[in-house]
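Changelog excerpt

This revision adds worked examples to the README so contributors can see how folded entries look when concatenated. The first example is reproduced verbatim below.
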Amino acid sequence: MRLRRLVTNPYQENTYLLFGRSGTAWVIDPGLYSEGERQAFRSFLAAEKAQLVGIYLTHAHIDHILGVRWTAATYNVPVFYHAAEAVVYEHAAEWAALMGLSYEPGPPAEQFLEGEMTLYLDGEPVEVLYIPGHSPGHVGFYFPESKKLFSGDILFRGSIGNYELPLADYQKMMDSLRNKILTLPEDTEVWPGHGGPTSIGYELLTNPFLQNL
């Protein structure tokens, strides 16, 4: 699996394009907001000669879904997220209005993701990790062969996700980190929803929020 990262929208959200071995592509958390961001997205797909087949959401906070409607309509692809995240997804327009953002709701999920289910990107397994806490239906996408985790907003380089938002839960976040994230191999690359990549081992050693877990 190969990836391209686009830093998008006013929240500097990471939109990830993932490319499989046979020309299939996924997008994780399309925060595409401006025409320039959308053009860059088109260019990455064209350069790889790849076919986009799905939109996969770690969670549905507004900065992670600003481009869902455009992406789904432009490429005629389905959206996937966890059932517990539906309440966040369905009320995203209200959050957009509060933030002064232009937003048109995307289509509902083609299928709900579930924790411990295995998906495949051109034959490469992708484990869905149910990691609530930052939001009720937050998931991560773990590629054991590529040793990569797309962690959404639960773990960042030197920090963890915001647990003071509506529907967030500090204890659930800590449990998700302890039981689902930090048990992954230490050489796993972590590609978060904001900021640069890190690794499980580096965060275990240096992240101040994880020292007492």
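The second example, added in the same revision:
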Amino acid sequence: MAMIVQPMRSSDIDSVLEIEGASFVTPWHRNAFLYELENRNARNYIIRPDPVKIQNIGDGPRLYGYACFHVAANELHLLKMAVAPDMRKNNIAFQLLDACFRNAAADDLDWVFLEVRRSNASAIRLYEKLGFCRIAARCDYYRRPEGGREDALIMRKTLKGGNTWQ
């Protein structure tokens, strides 16, 4: 499947919101994404079919997924990432994040951090495949749809250089 990763634009927001609503118990609203597009510390990407390699995309450029990050000092923090439900299990998340991390390394960033639900085994496997390791946990970080709270695992990936303080 031929895909391209590009910076997110305001014209992508409607498609991003569709994926967002289908993916999260407490989805972000339009204004949150618009704020991220204006935030100078944000890096927001989308993945879509490559129009050069795919002639019949249907009603136009469809989004397969998106990822939102913040940059602080020499670190990248994954805030949110999702793939359209009908496109999951097609290696899209891996390709999206891999491209984002190559951009981050080129921007001279050293690490990527993220939180993931302890119960989200498929996401944890993806992150480990991308080179993340578990470094800590945040108790009761996520709200569960059925009520109660769930821990988050904190994971880190070294982009280059590594820890000079360890």
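Reviewer comment on example two: Residues 69 and 78 are 5 Å apart (CA to CA). The helical segments are 13-23, 30-38, 92-106, 121-129.
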